Amino acid sequence: MNNQAFDLLMWARGPAFDIALMIFAGGIVLRIVEIFVLGRKKDLAPAKGNPVAQGLKTIFSRSVPREGLVKFAPITYIGGYIFHIGFFIAFFFFAPHIALFTDAFGVSWPSTGRVIVESATALALLALIALIYSRFTDPVRKALTTFDDYLVLVLSGLPLLTGYIAVNKLFGDPTMMMAFHILSVEALMIAFPFTKLMHAFSFAISRYYNGAIQGRKGAES
Amino acid sequence: MSATFERGLNALREQIDAPVASFFTSCVNCGLCAEACIFYRATEDPKYIPIKKLDLMRRVWSREFTLFGWIAGALGLVKPVTDKDFSDWETLVYDSCTMCGRCTLVCPVGNDITMMIRKMREGMSAAGHAPVELIAAAGRHADLGSPMGELHPALHAQVKHAIKDTGIEIEFDKPGVDYMVILSAQEIAEFPDVLGAMAKIFKKAGLTWTISNEAFEATNVGIQLGNRDVARVLVQRVVDAAEKLGVKYVISPECGHAYQALRWEGPNLIGRSYKFEVIHIIELLDKLRAEGKLKTKGKNTQKLTFHDPCQINRRGGINGEPRRLMNMVAENFVETDDAGTMNWCCGGGGGVGSNERAEGLRHAAFKLKKIQLEKVEPEVIVTMCAYCHHTLDNVLEEFNMDQEVMGLTELVAEYLDDDV
Ligand code: SF4
Ligand code: SF4
After folding, report:
1. A119 falls within a domain
2. Helices A147-168 and A174-191: crossing angle, nearest 10°?
3. Confidence at B141, pLDDT banded by 50, 70, 90
4. Nearest CA in chain A to B66
5. A positions 54-93 inside 8 Å of B (CB)
6. What is the number of the ligand 1 atom nearest to the C-alpha of B26?
7. Is there a domain that residue B139 lies in?
8. Which of B18, B292, B337, B391 has the most beta carbons within 10 angstroms of its beta carbon?
């Protein structure tokens, strides 16, 4: 075993992870607090619908696109779904990942087979490439894209890529690859509060508000 | 730095609340809002991507309401907002947005972009960067009672006309009645037949009602311009008149933004709830229908379709009501694609219709509505907003389309059962 690689792995799993976790958790709390401290005035118009119920419903229902819209931005919609679902499966249903959660929190759940996890990883990576491509070529995506968008796409792809390589021992020293994998996850965690990755938490808040505002009026959301 | 610019920036800051912060935090720059927007879809110009219309507000939020943005600002890493930014954004915020609300319904993270445009206009108008027509209309409204100027003589003439036509007495300023009717300036000036229609329906249903000389006009240019002070004064006028008369209900007329102003924004503008209820005329008609107080006879046999006004359906929550009424009086009622909640805007809402500079864009934006109409080929387009009616009349003529447009209240009144 290569000592250097082993040391890096140990550092990545130890102090580096602690630092990343601190920035990740602290940053997210800060960003969420930044939202809620601004508050919201009480709405004095008598409600026609139920804002709370519709707000909660919209957190879920907005995951489904409006009829007829997918065809106008197929890469964004389909690529987006494949990426999110693929990443989710690879992250939460890979047995070694579940073991980490069990170690840390004492919880566990059934894993899925290697084939599913690896296919999900590969598909998520392909979807990411398609999403990057559309940011270069599609006029709407191009007009909106900032450095942040590319950074986030790359940072989300690296853990998938390094994980895939490490697990399949495709090339390089497996210990080193595992260290890279963990470091790439930590990079993602550190960038999280500073970038639009925040949407992974804040989407629930914004969807809730959207549903509540519309729901109060008895309008659809 | 002028005082006006400072006022604009302050007004903008005041508008930033938790929902706005959550929306900007959540935006993933996916651009899906573009596909919903009438202006982007008609022109395919990326500058009309809805969320881009809010860039200025997003910058103020990021720099002043987030720690990282604040640090970046202090280090001089981000450009501060300037008066030039306000003037650059004026056409985007006023000419290329009818506040139709479609983007709000498609954003995957749930951003209420439309609400933010409404808020951003508060900053724009305070900074002195708003269309001259809206500013002038606000002046006329505050001084003369309506965005079209003094409408008292016209109203009285129309009421006289309606009394003669229907033989039903219409009384002004009558205390102790249940309902106070207010009208949109557009109805008084262009579509006064609605008065006779209401008189007939209300008589049959046994409602008691009146019109106030002090507040008979429902529109509210303050919410199109984005000026809470103007909006408050106009709402207060209606509230004072209604509470003085002691009515139980104020009937919001066939006017989209008037409903938005009086029903949803009003109590928040004046800082208290009303001592009466606001009911939209179409809500009322549907209620009367359900109670068996609105009886019709016979049906219209022409091919009819329905145009949903954005502020009444998508942003107002009135969707099933007009459809139940349509089915009651129309034999051949055909819905267009996207009808109901996702209907396409007429192109004239949100102050765009009175903004001369926006005329070209407004005509371009009619493309989507045109596609809807061409597929159904209706003889008559029924709607429940006098301003949609006005906009559609004009644009149909512009495009040599020969459909007739008509208000739903009038259509229902035509089929009132005279025997009961
Ligand atoms: S659809 Fe929503 S998340 Fe996507 S760019 Fe528009 S505002 Fe942002
Ligand atoms: S409210 Fe309507 S017009 Fe305005 S940006 Fe959204 S979709 Fe476009």
Report:
1. yes
2. 150
3. confident
4. A34
5. 58-59, 62-63, 65-69, 72-73, 76-77, 80
6. 3
7. no
8. B391
